[in-house]
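To whoever is on call:

I kicked off a structure prediction for a single chain this morning and the downstream step that reads the tokens threw a length-mismatch warning. I double-checked the sequence; it's 222 residues and nothing unusual in it as far as I can see. Pasting both halves so you can look.
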Amino acid sequence: MTATPVPITPELHAYLLAHSTRPDPVLSDLIEQTARLGDVARFQIAPEQGLLLTMLVQSLNARAAVEVGTFTGYSSIAIARGLAEGGSLVCCDVSEQWTAIAREAWKRAGVADRIELRLAPALDTLRALPAREYLDFAFVDADKVPYWDYYSELVVRLRPGGIVAFDNVFRHGDVVDSRRDAHADDPDVAALHEFNGRLVADPRVEVVMLPIADGLTLARKR
């Protein structure tokens, strides 16, 4: 028997937020600052995702983490706050403009000393990481077409029991569009549809796709 999923209406989402821990002043200010940037503000993760990231990192007692796609810093603060004492987070991004906002937010949040920002193509940064199983946690929220490439570099560096999370795996629900040309219209949809299928078939990991925000997949290394 499969339970019928409950549609997340605007009212239910508001209820969800009202019954979750609210963002503190630093994160609230960052939400407002990012919103003023206009349409690109959609790249920021949802508050409930931030809470989940912090709890995941805490539960793993994580000391080594990587983020692919930093934007204005909300997710990196969430991850850094969950790190165990002495832990560190490597952030991969290519935008000096957006990460300048993140740097200031890291200082206000008191986590700047735990974060190393590397401004370079993410694959270059990932390939330069130590070639051993040492990562506890990784979060990928960047350009969608290279998702499998990012995963390929991360999974071999993830320690057994470590988790890598991927955002936007629903692509606004378009990954299940049955139109023949739907995926051809958007390369991100096609890439995510292929990625989702390849990931769940990878015997190296256990996978759960969660209906949070635009879809969040967690892959735990066996």
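Update from on-call: the warning came from a stale cache, not from the record. Cleared it. Sanity check on the structure: The CA atoms of residues 4 and 11 lie 19 Å apart.
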